């Protein structure tokens, strides 16, 4: 059986926006600078081994019920109690708190300038200090950052007159910093004209959770500027920008442009974004790849014949692209693809990866000389070291898809199922273990499910490299390992005669919305938002009447699992919802 075609993403997003107009739900775990890490699936089972996940499932099932916000708005706490008793298995005692968000959250250092307000961010690259000399080796990029920021959490803290736009997501936002990114006095920088507007790109905004994935071309001290208008304020010209995002300083991905029908699709070259011009070499009916509107490519491959004639598309569509990252990249390399499976044929594979990956070594000595491709006796290996091909592969089955990670013939596999997805592949150096961490992940932007795979490539055992000897050489002042992928590969292949003997009289079709490659980005950041999860404080401000807060009212309630979420009522007020679970047998 073929998988049913997926509805266009634009319609899906509009449905989500309609839901978000009456209820907005987010997971506080999304505040962490970890992309797409919130457990947001529906309740899977009344009995689960992981109680923490069970707590989140139960809470999300409750607040996804449209009646929940109605109960909270009208103070119908007995109905809330009945709803939770229906969702949570009888093996658990539960406690629920609904608390005005303003009572448990504070934010410091916001600066108000009248036309706009500034929220400070501090983005710090990761550094590895190589022993024994303590040589600093950057592990993340100092010029490319990826931020996961929760808009629904920030908005109620900005004060009267300021709100980050969520209808046209972040359209009244800009990012600025002092020309010296380590400078902390932004007021003085603005006064002296010693400030710059940062190029940035909105990869994705999820109206269900409020999480925005943002790319910036900098690290250091950054300020998110929120205008009191529909467009950002330009601090260089002291005037409002004429367009959303101060386009083209900022802009959105093709996925966002297609979903929201906006005119601000951006190709931010600071993250090596592949444009239709770069992909034009791949567009050909003979190659099965075509250009499109509001997306980069449509890929079609055929699995059968009609009246003895093969369908127009070939059985394999392949495109090999230059990676476009400097040879001096030390930290590693990441590739990202946002795609959508429109129609699939069982047995079809979609491959995304790096071809002919090599590792080179550069060594500098105390006499100020440096040697590239160092292959002396202290290294113990001949350079460049060949890693081979590193691919992440989707294979479409009869009922679901399989995700696999393949490194030079070594393969690991996980089952999965995806609609509109973010596919990532990363290679990063691990100096402490003298090898390369290779990771692949896929995240479904519709169902919010995800899968991840990892592999460690040991340079010592596989290639004879002696990192310990290099590190202990007193004549060496710096060591740089550089990963050099030859090409970025995209390939879709459909078997001519599927295993079940059925000929499919249509094309397997995949849409590629966005495609980009970066050095390993800096993702850790600090935002001065403090949320208190102190149980005594939550209990103090809990608006639920005491007789409805708990199921069994067992003495000494001590939760073994907890879950948090935020809801927004139709009147715009925010509430923190806390759910704690304790085994009833322990009471």
Characterise this structure.
The protein is mainly β and 587 residues long. The chain has 3 domains: 51-103 and 532-583, no CATH class; 105-270, no CATH class; 272-519, Jelly Rolls (Sandwich). It contains 11 helices and 36 strands. Strands 20, 22, 23, 24, 25, 26, 30 and 31 form an 8-stranded antiparallel β-sheet that branches. Strands 16-17-32-21-27-28-29 form a 7-stranded antiparallel β-sheet. Strands 4, 5, 9, 10, 13 and 33 form a 6-stranded antiparallel β-sheet that branches. A hairpin with a 2-residue loop joins strand 25 (401-407) and strand 26. Helix 1 (9-20) packs across helix 7 (254-260). The longest helix has 13 residues, at 51-63. The chain crosses the membrane at residues 12-36.
CATH architecture of the largest domain: Sandwich
What's the overall average pLDDT, rounded? 81
Total helical elements: 11
What separation lies between the terminal Cα atoms?
51 Å
Overall geometric form: globular
The computed structural class is mainly beta
Give start-end ranges of low-pLDDT stretches.
1-49
Main sheet makeup: 8 strands, antiparallel
**Which CATH C-level class of the largest domain is it?**
Mainly Beta
Question: What percentage of residues falls in helices of 4 or more residues?
Answer: 10-25%
Beta-strand share of residues: 35-45%
The count of strands amounts to 36
What would you report as the Rg, rounded to the nearest angstrom? 26 Å
Give the number of domains: 3
Reported by name, the CATH topology of the largest domain is Jelly Rolls
């Amino acid at each position: 059986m073929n998988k049913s075609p997926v509805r266009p993403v634009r319609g899906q997003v509009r449905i989500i926006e309609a839901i978000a107009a009456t209820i907005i739900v987010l997971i506080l775990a999304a505040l962490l600078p970890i992309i797409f890490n919130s457990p947001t699936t529906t309740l899977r089972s009344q009995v689960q081994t992981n109680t923490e996940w069970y707590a989140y499932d139960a809470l999300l099932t409750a607040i996804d019920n449209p009646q929940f916000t109605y109960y909270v708005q009208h103070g119908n706490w007995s109905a809330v109690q009945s709803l939770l008793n229906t969702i949570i298995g009888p093996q658990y005692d539960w406690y629920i708190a609904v608390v005005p968000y303003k009572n448990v959250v504070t934010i410091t250092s916001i600066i108000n300038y009248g036309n706009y307000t500034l929220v400070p961010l501090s983005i710090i690259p990761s550094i590895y200090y190589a022993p024994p000399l303590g040589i600093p080796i950057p592990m993340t990029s100092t010029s490319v950052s990826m931020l996961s920021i929760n808009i629904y959490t920030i908005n109620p803290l900005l004060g009267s007159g300021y709100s980050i736009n969520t209808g046209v997501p972040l359209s009244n936002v800009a990012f600025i910093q002092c020309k010296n990114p380590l400078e902390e006095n932004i007021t003085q920088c603005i006064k002296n004209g010693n400030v710059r507007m940062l190029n940035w790109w909105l990869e994705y905004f999820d109206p269900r959770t409020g999480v925005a994935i943002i790319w910036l071309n900098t690290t250091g001290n950054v300020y998110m500027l929120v205008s009191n208008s529909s467009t950002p304020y330009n601090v260089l010209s002291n005037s409002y920008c004429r367009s959303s995002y101060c386009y083209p300083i900022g802009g959105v991905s093709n996925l966002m442009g297609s979903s929201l029908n906006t005119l601000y699709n951006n190709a931010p070259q600071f993250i090596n974004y592949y444009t239709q011009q770069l992909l034009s070499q791949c567009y050909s009916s003979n190659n099965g790849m075509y250009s499109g509107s509001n997306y980069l490519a449509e890929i079609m491959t055929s699995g059968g014949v009609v009246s003895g004639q093969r369908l127009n598309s070939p059985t394999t569509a392949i495109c090999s692209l230059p990676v476009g990252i400097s040879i001096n990249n030390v930290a590693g390399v990441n590739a990202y693809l946002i795609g959508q499976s429109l129609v699939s044929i069982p047995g079809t594979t979609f491959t995304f990866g790096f071809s002919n990956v090599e590792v080179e070594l550069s060594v500098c000595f105390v006499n100020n000389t440096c040697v590239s491709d160092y292959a002396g006796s202290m290294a113990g290996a001949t350079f460049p070291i060949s890693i081979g091909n590193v691919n992440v592969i989707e294979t479409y089955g009869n009922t679901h898809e399989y995700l696999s990670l393949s490194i030079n013939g070594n393969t690991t596999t996980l089952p999965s199922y995806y609609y509109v997805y973010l596919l990532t592949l990363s290679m990063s150096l691990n100096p402490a273990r003298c090898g390369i961490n290779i990771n692949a992940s896929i995240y479904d932007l519709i169902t919010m499910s995800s899968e991840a795979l990892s592999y460690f490539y040991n340079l010592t055992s596989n290639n004879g490299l002696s990192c310990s000897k290099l590190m202990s050489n007193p004549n060496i002042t710096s060591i740089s390992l550089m990963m050099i992928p030859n090409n970025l590969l995209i390939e879709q292949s459909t078997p001519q005669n599927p295993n079940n003997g059925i000929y499919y009289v249509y094309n397997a079709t995949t849409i590629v919305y966005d495609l980009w490659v970066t050095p390993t980005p800096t993702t850790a950041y600090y935002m001065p938002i403090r949320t208190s999860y102190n149980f005594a404080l939550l209990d103090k401000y809990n608006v639920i009447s005491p007789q409805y807060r708990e199921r069994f009212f067992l003495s000494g309630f001590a939760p073994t699992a907890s879950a948090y979420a935020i809801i927004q009522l139709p009147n715009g007020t925010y509430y923190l919802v806390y759910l704690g679970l304790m085994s009833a047998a322990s009471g």
